[in-house]
Amino acid sequence: MATRFRHAALVGKYQARGIGPVLEDIAQLLIGLGLEVTVEAETAAATGLSGHPTAPVDALGRQCDLAVVVGGDGTMLGIARELARHDLPLVGINQGRLGFITDIPAGEFRPALAAMVTGDCEEEQRTMIEGEVWRDGERLHAGFALNEVVVNRGASAGMVEVRVAVGDEAMAHLRADGLIVATPTGSTAYALAAGGPIVHPAIAGWVIVPIASHTLTNRPIVVPDHGEVVIEIAAGRDATLNFDMHRTACLLYGDTVRVRRSAHRVRFLHPRGWSYFGTLRRKLRWYE
């Protein structure tokens, strides 16, 4: 069979019960379709998958031209952040619950992958977001996210107070449990649960969503993604900064978080006929 791809990386959710046989079935299918298969090293170690070459994530990005990710959206988020710099297209096979970005049901991977490796698929690219923490003129932390960057109040403290600017223009001074800056991809994740709007992935914008704001008039807003969003910690103890809900930094009074569009984008491959609105209808039950 003529294939568009030659070498697939295989990544799975380590904790998923019974995922080993599923990964082996996918590996054998890809090999039968003419591809080399390398299993992500931690996936192989955690699932006992043997008989295939293994490599760490960064090496997969250099060696492979396709990544097949088996799990839920959390699994995809983690690997997408790592592989985006390598411009590697990602295929998601859903073994989680919602599956907004892992959109092939586990029971349907055979016909889907057989078509996709020949190039019979649809590609879309999603923007990423990057953020930095600055303190006294020094950059302390930096990270990437596909979904969102979140400033959260401390576990033992009250609300966090922040000043927010978009570009050079002050936007708001608010007290809340936290603040979310989400990409369009992240608009169906934490931002949606916090009351934010759904933003189509083709929209070049960020969603800024207060979490349980003290002032009811502090509402979610969509802003352009071509400038910086600057968040200054004006009050509050033990605040934290998270990238895709991974805790990465503790924030102090006076710290500044700078958020901008990343130079990297995530490439997703979907089966032919895939529809973003179809995904929303299925996952959010809009057909009822």
Give a concise summary.
Helices cover 20% and strands 42% of the residues. It is α/β, with parallel strands linked by helices and 288 residues long.
Q: What is the radius of gyration computed over CA atoms, rounded to a whole number of angstroms?
A: 20 Å
Give the CATH superfamily of the largest domain. Answer: Probable inorganic polyphosphate/atp-NAD kinase, domain 2
- Give the overall pLDDT as a whole number: 93
Shape: elongated
| Category by helix and strand content | alpha/beta
Number of domains: 2
pLDDT under 50 segments (min length 5)? Answer: none
CATH-defined fold name of the largest domain: Tumour Suppressor Smad4
Proportion of beta-strand residues? 35-45%
Total number of helices? 7
Main β-sheet, in a few words?
A: 12 strands, mixed
Number of strands: 18
- How far apart are the termini? 41 Å
Mind explaining what this structure looks like?
- This protein folds into two domains: 7-119, Rossmann fold (3-Layer(aba) Sandwich); 128-263, Tumour Suppressor Smad4, CATH 2.60.200.30.
- The protein has 288 residues and is of the alpha/beta class.
- The chain has helices spanning 19-32, 41-47, 57-63, 73-83, 109-116, 190-193, 276-283, and strands spanning 7-12, 36-40, 54-55, 66-71, 89-94, 104-105, 121-135, 138-145, 148-152, 160-166, 169-176, 178-182, 205-211, 221-224, 229-235, 239-243, 246-251, 256-271.
- Strands 1, 2, 3, 4, 5, 6, 7, 8, 10, 11, 15 and 18 form a twelve-stranded mixed β-sheet that branches.
- Helix 1 links the parallel strand 1 (7-12) and strand 2 (36-40).
- The mean pLDDT is 93.
- 20% of the residues lie in helices and 42% in strands.
- The termini are far apart.
- It is built from seven helices and 18 strands.
- The chain is elongated and about 60 Å long.
